[in-house]
Amino acid sequence: MRVLGVDPGLTRCGVGVVEGVAGRPLTMLGVGVVRTSSDAELGDRLVAVERGIEAWLDEYSPGYVAVERVFAQHNVRTVMGTAQASAVAMLCAARRGIPVALHTPSEVKAAVTGSGRAEKAQVGAMVTRLLRLDAPPKPADAADALALAICHIWRAPAQNRLQQAVAAHRTSGPPATPRTSGASRAPRTLKGRSA
Question: Which of these is catalytic: 68, 107, 119, 134?
């Protein structure tokens, strides 16, 4: 399984490609950051993010794209930029027919470090260890992108089984409830009061 992880952001959009299967050593194929200038117009920045992600898709041909799920923040401006970059990544993948998975930051942290409340330094250290790197990828956005890819590789088999079970349940319909014949039902009688 080859996964492109995307840690969305307008100024720095982390990208990282990891290959492997759950339960086996994983390999990093590439890591980096797509950067845009905060002085540029929003439309131009989104185009730059799109071009950057398209270049990564061209170079590595991933089978899946894992994007960090946008969550509510106090800073609306930051969350809007993150959501816009996230949408660009999903659009690029969908245009090519590549399945997209969304993972929350706590899911990624839990998958990589064992704790959904891990600090960025802990995530970077575990990514370094899991991928057998000499040093943590810099900046943190790059390490987060690799963590997303690792999370997806490890969680995809379980998610696929769950989706198959849900799909099978939907096609088969709800289980039939046993019916009892009218003859086997005992009639209820109410004792009347005598006047």
Answer: 68
Report the C-alpha gap between 77 and 160 in whole angstroms.
Answer: 35
Q: Is 68 a catalytic residue?
A: yes
Residue 73 clears pLDDT 70, i.e. is over it: no
Q: Please say if 141 is a catalytic residue.
A: yes
How far apart, in whole angstroms, are the C-alpha atoms of residue 118 and residue 166? Answer: 32
Q: Catalytic residue among 107, 119, 141, 144, which?
A: 141
Give the confidence band of 194 by pLDDT, cuts at 50, 70, 90. Answer: very low
Report yes or no on whether pTM surpasses 0.85: no
